[in-house]
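TEACHING EXERCISE
Course module: macromolecular assemblies
Task: Read the component lines below, then compare them to the predicted structure of the full complex.
Student: A.B.
Group: 4
Components provided:
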Amino acid sequence: MSRKPDGTPLLEVRGLRAAIDGKEILKGLDLTVHAGEVHAIMGPNGSGKSTLAGVLAGRDRAQVTGGTATLDGRDLLALPPEERAVAGLFLGFQYPVEIPGVGNLYFLRTALNAQRKARGEEELDAVDFLGLAKEKMKLVEMDPAFMNRGVNEGFSGGEKKRNEVLQMAVLEPRLSILDEIDSGLDIDALRVVARGVDALRSPDRATVLVTHYQRLLEYIVPDRIHVMAAGRIVHSGGRELALELEQKGYAWVEP
Amino acid sequence: MSDALKELTEQKYKYGFVTDVAEDRIRKGLDEDVVRLISAKKNEPQFLLDFRLKAFRHWLTLEEPTWAKVRYNPIDYQDIVYYSAPKPRKKLASMDEVDPELREAFAKLGIPLEEQKRLSNVAVDAVFDSVSVATTFKKKLADMGVIFGSFSDAVRDHPELVEKYLGSVVPYTDNYFATLNSAVFSDGSFAYVPKGVRCPMELSTYFRINAADTGQFERTLLVADEGAYVSYLEGCTAPQRDQNQLHAAVVELVALDGAEIKYSTVQNWYPGDAEGRGGIYNFVTKRGKAMRRAKISWTQVETGSAITWKYPSCILQGDESVGEFYSVALANHRQQADTGTKMIHVGKNTRSTIVSKGISAGHGQNTYRGLVKIGKGAEGARNHSQCDSLLIGDRCGAHTFPYIEARNPTAQVEHEATTSKISEDQLFYCRQRGIREEDAVSMIVNGFARQVLRELPMEFAVEAQKLLGMSLEGSVG
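Instructor-supplied answer key:
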């Protein structure tokens, strides 16, 4: 496990509180993720897992009422969503959105170039981009026929999730937060998702898997597992924690 | 800040400048003398003066229509100048003689009149305050027998063609605004493509309103003889002024047996400001007649004008003729658009397709109004209509009025309609991937309109995409 020489975590969340329509969902949450790590956040429905993912990505459905979150030492909460993306944060959506008429590949290139431009890097031309996209499509076993269809337009649940992983693979984020990426997936698709996550494993990057089931963890072995309940992380541990959850259910973690 | 965003957020209407040229304008107001004066200024033959006078006398008996879903203050028809032309109006021996001021005005609009600078496959007729000031590639077209130029030149050089077809699709009695146009039209474009000729380049007219207090009344007439093909583009802009200006044009298309006419419009007249001051009243009659196995295809991108009242239509006269209408209409701020088409099926086995995409933002009101009429003899006629509306924000409106009249039991008429909003989820998804909100809106809107935009010739498609993004400036947030 590699760490930055100065020990700054990639993601550091301290005492994070957030409310939706006045109802507090996150109640003082702490989480530290270092570069090179894969974390899993598990927990029962309603524990606040998806809200956490949304708040970190800047979804304005929830209002942050307290605490801090930094990415590489930068105040995440002060940035609009697109600048969080430019800073290297990627959210894999539980329910990827359809954008009719906007070609999938066109969308991905627009996103990649918007990020590169904002970082002062050169934009990729159509040919170079196509080369990159083809390589990543192989990784996620995606049929090229999907590329010119509208973004997620008429995709099955599994295809949408593969598309999320494809976007992640092309954008190469520093921190990927995958929200219930495994829900509704068959075993083949799970394998593909796992391969996508593994391909991004590197000393400079990290992944946070948000999941309800431990099944995903048979394919991706996390370094740390956290159990969330009622808006806080209540247990943290190694892989053995997942197995314990599998046997005992979530009832024992409920406050 | 990205260039695209800069363009989107800072660019107001960028064609709002005024060109300082000497004008030959007549007094305000409209009466029979004014009609005669316009005709005399243009040295017209008797048949044309008669046409104008019949139209004017008929117009006096008509009432301005009120059925469209648009609201505006009454127009004072006596407070309009009906003829204004840039001076001097001597005959130009070559393009070099075009007034430098005018040349510069068109250069600013991105329409260089020098032929060597033009895209190689587009011939342009430039119309400035209702008068054609220049036509490029005339000679090259003439070699193929294609006549293309100003309406006035056609009246002088080919009066027999003008007399034969003028009013044959839109009669002078047609409707209030078309009748007014028939009385006072000043210029416009004319094209004739002879039998069996495939016009080798896109024909294009660029309309520019410059003078204040004037009405713009052009007349366009395109005739594709048997088996001919022509693709025609028109673009329009006007200066930014606080007063409303009336634009009442008429376009007639004649597609003889086996001919095909593709007519594309990118309409970007000044739309008025965010509070609805100023802007063009765009009250236009466009119609084509398709004979046996002929095809007429209208594609329009309507982003400008304070009010749009426009129904490009097809009379499918001949058996197996085909009509198409592809439209994107955008109403932002206080703009109002009431637009659609009429597909009149007369011949047997005639087919028509309607794809209408309406985008409403700000306080904009967007109405689709379309008629599909299947005549008694239109055995086996088929129509498919698709009307989609996209709403941006919660203060705008989208309205759909499809009329269907079928008098033949073998007809098949299908109508589909959807209404959707740009959702917060879509915007967040784009932003999470690093795309700024304004760019995301522009991308989503272009995706919505794609089915129509892909019908446009390449040069126009790119311009139209940018225009859609620009016209939505300030519509989010």
